[in-house]
Structures are given as C-alpha cells and as structure tokens.
Amino acid sequence: MPKVTFAYPDFENMGIQYLMAVCLQNGYNVSFVYYEAENNFLNRKNKSLSFQQIAKKIIDTNPDIAAFSCVTDNYHYQLQCARALKEMMPDIVTIFGGIHPTAVPKRVLQKEEVDCVAIGEAEISFPNFLREASRGDSFKLPDKAIEGIVFKKGGKVIGEFKEGILPDLDNLPYPHKAPFVSLMKLTGDYRIIATRGCPYSCSYCFNSFYHRLRGKKDVRRRTVANVINELLLAKKQFSPKYISFWDDSFTTNKKWIREFCSLYKRKINLPFICCINPFYVDREISELLGSAGCIYVSVGVQSTSEELCLNVLNRRSKNDNIAQAIKYLQGAGILVQIDHMLGIPGDTPKKQEESVEFYNKWRPNLISVYWLTYYPKTAILDISYKQGILSDEDISKIEEGEFIKDGSLLTGGSLKNPKQYYCVYLLLNYLPLLPKWFVNLLIKSGIYSLFQINNFYIATVIPRVIISLTNKRYYHGRQYIKSFFYNLFNRFMKIQPE
Ligand code: B12
Ligand code: SF4
C-alpha cells in the first residue's frame, strides 16, 4: 500500500484533511508534517526556517510520495521544501495540488522538483492516481493518464490539464483532523465546510477563475444531516468551544438554513461563526442564525461604491441591502465584521470618505480592512492589465507566487502607491471604537488625512485587541492574542539555556 506524506505550513488545512480521509478510506498510509513559515496575522516570517530539516522530517515518515498543498502565498515555501527533499531523496515522487497549482498547473509542473500536479478537487483523482501508481511491485508513476492529475514521465507530460470528477460531498468521509489537534486546541474551534462553491463570481476571488475552469457556476451542498453528524462526532472527539463554518457564503439557500438552524440548536448548541454575502441576508435569516447560536459573521462588502462593485469587482451590491444586513444581524445579537478592501482599480480617496460616512452611519462592530492582492487567473487581472495597472512582467510574477511589491494584504497589498490611503486604513480600523460625532468631525474637517500611519501594530493590532477585549463575541481576535502569547512563550523557551 502506498505511503503518502503531506506537508503544510502555519494553518489547519481542510483540503489535506479530506484527502487524508479518502486515502485512509482506501487503506493507504498517511502522515503529516507541519512547519512554521510565517505568522500571517502578525506579518512576520520565520527567519530560522530550514527546508532541509523539514525534508528530513518528511523522509523520516518513509513516504512513497510527498504531497504539497499550496495557496499562492505559501507556494514558494512548499517549492523549497520539495527542492530540499529531492536533493536528499532524488527518487521520491512529489505532487502539488491546491488552488495555486489548479490556477497555473503548467507553470508549476515545469519546476524540476514537481513530478505531478492535481487540478481542482482531488478526493476522486488522488486515490485513483495512487491506485494506478501502486499496481506493480513498487510505487512508480502510472503508465496511463488519470483524470485531474498531470505528471511527467520519461520526458513526456501525461494527462490533460483539466479538473477531475467532482465528489458527491455527502459520500465523502469526514475530514481527518487528528494531525491538527494541537492547532485546533490553540484556536479552540472546529472548522467545517458545508458547501463548496459560490453563486457569485467576484473578480478578485478564486471563484471567478473556478467558474471559467468549470464552465459554470456551481454550489454543492451537503445535507443538513451529514453536517450535523460530523459535528456530533466532533463534539465527542475534540470538545470544541465553538464551530467555524468556512463556506464561501453560508446563507445562499434559505430552505437549507431553516432546516440547519433548527437541528443545530437542538443537537449541537455551540456558538458558531460564518461568512456571508449581504445579498443573502434578510430579517428571517438573521433571526434564524441568531437563535441557533451564531455569534459572529464576516460580511463581505469590499466597497460601498456601487459603481466600482459592478464594473470592477463584478458584485451586484446595493448599499441599502448592506445597511439592512448590518441592522438585522446586529438586531439578532450577532457581531458584524465588515470586510472592506482598499486598492481597487479606479478607487479614490473621495470614495473612501463616503465609505467611512456609510459605516459611521450603520456602525458595524468591526471593520476588517484589506488591501487588494492579485491572485493568478482571477478576472481582476484582466481588468488591471487593460487599464495599464499591471504589466506582463507583473502577471508572470503573480503566477510564480511572487509579490509584485513588498506588502501583504494588511500592509499595502498589490497597490503600487498605497500611501494616500494609509489615513483611511487607520480610520476604518478604529471607527467602531470612536463616537459617531468624532468620526464625522475627522472626515468633515479633513483632519484624519494628517494621520498617514502605516505601522501594522498601531493601525491593525491595537484596535483589534481592544475590540477582542471589549466584545466577548470576537472569538477570532482572542484566538490571535492567544497564539501571539503562545508563540512568544515558545520562542522564549527555545532561547533558554539547557
Ligand atoms: C478556510 C480558508 C482559510 C483559512 C485556512 C487556510 C488554509 N490554508 O486552509 C485561513 C483563515 C487561515 C485562510 C487564510 C488565508 N487565505 Co484563505 N481560504 C479559506 C477558504 C475559505 C476555504 C479553504 C478550504 O478549506 N476549502 C475546502 C477544501 C476542501 O478545498 P481546497 O483547500 O481547495 O482543497 C481541495 C483541492 O484544492 C485539492 N488539493 C488541495 N491541496 C492538495 C494537495 C494535493 C497533493 C492534491 C493532490 C490535491 C490538493 O483537493 C482538495 C480536496 O478537494 C478558501 C476559499 C475556498 N472555498 O476554498 C480561501 C482561500 C484559499 N484563501 C485565500 C487567501 C488569499 C488567503 C490568505 C492569503 C488571506 C490572508 N493573508 O489572510 C491567507 C493565506 C493563508 C495560508 N498561507 O494558507 C484564497 C487563495 C487564493 C490563492 N490563489 O492562493 C482563497 C482561495 C479565497 C479566495 N477568495 O480566493 N484561509
Ligand atoms: S461572494 Fe465571496 S466567495 Fe463568493 S465570489 Fe464573491 S468574494 Fe468569492
């Protein structure tokens, strides 16, 4: 039976958990190697990272195949791990999958350290591949093409660069969480996904690319019973303090929400959090969520310019709808976090002032401000390219997983001249903590524009810490504080003399 070792940095990863579960279901051996590459939320890289040590850990699990899952942000770390591994164990087979290799599979497969790439969801294609690869006496690359996986063999590329068969979500085993228990203890939550896909196709989001890849928009949904059963087991096995739903847009089907909320309250009864699109929020949905135990929602707004939403972000967004969503959700006792984006092509300081006025009127509990970061094959690349904002060289860099400028999504993102927006970034982060009249004064007098502060701790960390300490429902904030002290403690322990 083949032995598969997955490696992944920094986070719990549900894609890997599903793949490990289907491998185990097929009787294959699985191992997991975790490493710390960077602290995404404190914007800090791990300077003492040694890829040789990680490769050694992978080798110690005695694998036939090393499996690397990648988002664009961690692709270069994963490549370096694979490179170190190939240097130490040249015969090992490596496979790359996840959203980044799915977006640019040809580019990824060109790398010497990559033998195979998986395109899209792989719960069916990966076990098929392993089955074929282990047909002989030893594990070797298959002789025939496998749908959804492309590989290099004997100087040839075998397979088509197309996504494989999508799984029926209710038929999947529950994600294999055991290797992630220490991360789960730290965060205190159980992460679950009830739907895959989104009916929207926002230009900056990977869904804009997935819809093109699949030739259609699809939302696949697990039955309520299947979700509740997973959570019943999770309660027994892991005793989580709360549940996080990582669905792209949790409330797109009202009938499902009605059934879910009633069963969840009766059978699970733990606080939960989810992400929603304001288009799919009304009074009934808010009340259902609130009475089932939802304490916190992240609402994707991104811009209060309806024109930018329509023409650049490809979002049918109405400000009246956003205002109502905030009112109904807060009325149902739910903490409302708004996701707001800076750096959208065509944005202006004036439009941002209007956003401040809008949020000051409707007062969400938290405004999470991000800077637009370009990801491979998303529709916004075409828009920015046509407007001359991005060059061919920029697009090539983005596809290689390199930043086109030095800045994460919390410190300027891909925007080449973010400086004029530092003041609005600061103001939006502090807005929920300031009295309404004071925000009005800052905007009307223009005084706010004197505060061009781009210090990550002052602009982002301090307001988040205050909100976490003053609002019990801001679980995430307290998680970050906890992880911060945990990391600090670990670092301190490591420098202690033996
Ligand atoms: C949960 C989530 C998070 C969580 C957990 C992150 C994690 N690493 O798992 C948190 C909040 C920490 C997070 C953070 C970030 N996220 Co996020 N996140 C998601 C979200 C909503 C769900 C991911 C998920 O679990 N999907 C369900 C699983 C089943 O699907 P999957 O992961 O794609 O895995 C399947 C296939 O890809 C494939 N596969 C995956 N890996 C492998 C490996 C092998 C070997 C094979 C064969 C197949 C394979 O098979 C899997 C099973 O079908 C996605 C959106 C989405 N719906 O996918 C965004 C998403 C992945 N995030 C995104 C981004 C940008 C980020 C951040 C950069 C934002 C930030 N700076 O804060 C960070 C980066 C963190 C990091 N370094 O990993 C983007 C990534 C775009 C890109 N091109 O990279 C996405 C796609 C959202 C978007 N709007 O575009 N995220
Ligand atoms: S609503 Fe959210 S998940 Fe859906 S396409 Fe837009 S940004 Fe992506």
Task: Spell out the key features of this protein.
single chain, 498 residues, alpha/beta, seven-stranded mixed sheet, six-stranded parallel sheet, 20 helices, 17 strands, 44% helix, binds cobalamin, binds iron/sulfur cluster
Radius of gyration: 23 Å
β-strand percent reads 15-25%
Output the strand order for the largest sheet: 2-1-5-6-7-8-9
Q: What is the arithmetic mean of pLDDT? A: 92
Helix content: 40-55%
Instruction: Name the bound molecules.
Output: cobalamin, iron/sulfur cluster
Q: Which word captures the global form?
A: globular
Which residues form runs of ≥5 with pLDDT under 50?
A: none
Distance between the termini: 42 Å
Number of helices: 20
Structural class: alpha/beta
The total count of strands amounts to 17
Main beta sheet, described? 7 strands, mixed
Fold topology:
Blueprint: E1 3-9, H1 14-25, E2 29-35, E3 38-39, E4 44-45, H2 51-60, E5 65-69, H3 72-88, E6 93-97, H4 99-103, H5 105-109, E7 116-118, H6 125-133, E8 149-153, E9 156-158, H7 181-187, E10 189-192, E11 195-196, H8 206-214, E12 220-221, H9 224-238, E13 242-245, H10 254-267, E14 272-276, H11 283-292, E15 294-302, H12 306-313, H13 319-331, E16 335-342, H14 349-362, E17 366-371, H15 379-386, H16 392-399, H17 422-430, H18 436-445, H19 456-470, H20 475-494
Cobalamin binds at residues 10-11, 13-15, 18-19, 40, 67-69, 71-74, 95, 97-100, 102-103, 118, 121-123, 126, 193, 205-206, 246, 248, 375-376, 409.
